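User: structure tokens for this one?
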Amino acid sequence: MADHALFAAVYDRMQAPTEAAGLAAHRRRLLSSARGRVLEIGGGTGLNLAHYPAATVDSVLVLEPDGAMRRRLAPRVEAAPVPVEVRAAGIEDLRAEDGPFDTVVSTLVLCSVPDLADAIRRIEAVLDPAGEYLFLEHVAVPGFRGQLQRFVTPVWKHFAGGCHLDRDPVLAMADAGLAIVECDRFDLPVTSPLVRAAVRGRARRRGTE
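Assistant:
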């Protein structure tokens, strides 16, 4: 994955109004369920790290393939309430032997992984049979806005760190054999209508829910 230096430089500033208007609260609520050994896919600039509960989380392994993002992530590693290791790797580099993890986390990252279906399969492969996958992702929508998402994506992704506006991660989870045990749909506050629709939830290996 190529570094996105400009996107990384402006990311926190762009996100600040959305975080303050409610996204930080969604992160905190999602991560309150994290426990044990945690894998975070695509740590970005580290906006999740402050929200991991020290009482239930033993450690967090963050995968972040973008060097520009890793440089901005580093200061938040030091301030995190739990031990954090950052690996210069993407989900496509993850192997089953890296697991199992008690919790796998992705927030606003499945839009930018190289292959959505493969990413979900790799998450399922490293998730402990008793573990949970915690997700907070923006999603494609039907109708005219969905058509606009598909039309804009080829250009949008070049300026937004590889973000695909037209992906349906919930469908990909079901297709990969994950059982969704909770899925709340909401609108991201103070953001573009093209990325407003979002989901927050928990999934497990099918048969263990």
